[in-house]
Amino acid sequence: MGLPAGVFTLVFLLTLLAWHIKREDNRRQTLAQFGNVVSDIRSHLESDLRILAGVTAAGAAYVNASQDITRREWAVYVDSLRLAERHTGISVLGYVEKVMKTDTEGFAARTRADDSPDFHIHYQGGAASSPFDDLYPVKYSEPHEVGHRALGFDLGSHPTRRRAIERAAASGSFTLSDVIQLEWSVRPESWFLFIFPIYHAGGDLSTEAARRDALKGLISSPFPCRSLLNDMPPELRRRAVFQIINQTDEGTRELLLDAADPGAFAPEAARQPPVERELATGGRVWLIRALPTPVFLAENRRASHRLVLLLGGALSLALGALAHYAALSARRNELRRNVTEGQLELALKSSGVGAWSWDLTARTVHWSEGTGLLYGLSGEAGTRSYDAVLGLIHPADRPRVSLDNLSRSSLKSTF
Predict the structure, then answer these.
(1) How far apart are CA 214 and CA 204, in angstroms?
(2) How many helices (H) and strands (E) does the chain have?
(3) H helices present in 300-392, as ranges
(4) Which of 386, 388, 393, 381 is nearest to 363 (CA)?
(5) With 80 as the cut, is the pLDDT of residue 188 above it?
(6) Residue 173: helix, strand or coil by DSSP?
(7) φ/ψ of residue 166, rounded to 5
(8) What's the burial of 229, exposed, middle or buried (CB within 10 Å: 0-12/13-18/19+)?
(9) b/e for 293-314, b at 16 or more Cβ within 10 A?
(10) Cβ of 115: how many Cβ atoms within 10 Å?
(11) Which of 142, 168, 191, 355 is placed for a possible disulfide with 368 were both Cys, Cβ 3.0 to 4.6 Å?
């Protein structure tokens, strides 16, 4: 590899290294920016869930403040909450009472007498009864025009709902269920339940077991998973596509929401791993997985690494060209020198004279072939020591060519 190619290759390799480093730095900065977007999505979801938790907690406080409530009182209370104004996903607020299996008939009769003549308890999958000793039928569900389908349904007869009820009773706080399907929903879609426990006044709440025994009932509200997007700021939806994945009680993962095009999160489709954030709330852990949209990438495109490549490439070409020019100039000078030396050698041979040069520092003399012949030596050009040459000079002339004399003369004139 010649000098020009070597210079070009070295500079170009350094340019590629700088380009790679800058590109990775840009990528890290873009990921950090997108990480902020995903954190904003998580913060918005947290805010939404706090609103929903507040609604169920307020319902529990209302029940606790009353010795007993009627269907009419519950309807008036729920109407005063203006649920749709709090969140578009909140459509129904229900009161669920814990009923022992031995008291199902008595409970149903009391509820029918409370302005609910058609009330009856029904179970998951149309079963005739519950396999459990404790039942959790929906006693009130308002607004009536939306929630009447849920009246009498035993939440405890459904495994997913029962697990959420047990967690709520044990924790004493707001709880989310895993994904469920509402049997009375107009269209098939995924839902989850918000549950807040209500305990008997004066009950022992010191341990989980004691809290389960003291459980009086629940406030519950079904929430469609798609409604998590309803109040999501358009700016966030414009900049990210995301999924929300729930880690279930059974240790598996289930998709709550997919706000992305089909296949967007497939390994072969994603240009980069999704950015993930965890959201722990209501006894659940949700995983938010997000990918940047083309809009976000366009807004945060950084071209500095391309500029490095462009400038480095230009510099590589320029330095390569300069090195190539320097190599050509050196070659031309060498050719000229060879031609000049050849012409001098030809002139010396044709004229029968010789040429010589002194190296006063090295104490040597270099002479041509003709000079050797003039001294009666073999006709070979070469270098001899000063003392050897001095022996060829007539003794009378030697002082004139002594080193001291030559050194002084070299300071005054040019040989």
Answers:
(1) 7
(2) 13, 14
(3) 304-351, 369-374, 386-390
(4) 386
(5) no
(6) coil
(7) -65, -40
(8) middle
(9) beebeeebeeeebeebbeebbe
(10) 11
(11) 355
For residue 248, the one-letter residue type is: T
Dist CA 216 CA 362 (whole Å): 114
Burial level of 290, CB count in 10 A (0-12/13-18/19+)? Answer: buried
What is the phi/psi pair of residue 172, to 5°? 75, 20
Per-residue pLDDT of 249-267, as tens digits, reads 888 999 888 887 666 666 5
Residue type at 172 in one-letter notation:
G
Rounded-to-integer distance, Cα 174 and Cα 117, Å: 32
Q: First vs last Cα of the chain: how many Å apart?
A: 43
Locus of tokens 């480093």:
21
Beta strands per DSSP E along 155-214: 175-176, 191-199
324 within 8 A of 8, measured Cβ to Cβ: no
- Nearest by Cα to 169 from 133, 134, 215, 123: 215
Question: One-letter amino acid identity for 317?
Answer: L
Residue with tokens 């003039």: 374
In angstroms, rounded to a whole number, what is the distance separating the alpha carbons of residues 59 and 50?
14
* Crossing angle (nearest 10°) for helices 304-351 and 3-64: 170
Rounded to an integer, what distance in angstroms lies between the CA atom of residue 122 and that of residue 327?
Answer: 96
Task: List, for residues 3-17, the tens digit of each pLDDT value.
Answer: 566 666 766 676 667
DSSP symbols for 388-413: HHHTTS-TTTGGGG-HHHHHHHHHH-
Q: Indicate the burial class of 349 (C-beta count within 10 angstroms; 0-12, 13-18, 19 or more).
A: middle
Q: For the chain, what percentages of helix, strand and coil (3-state, to nearest 5) are there?
A: 50, 20, 30
Give the tokens for residue 148: 């009447």
Q: How long, in residues, is the chain?
A: 415
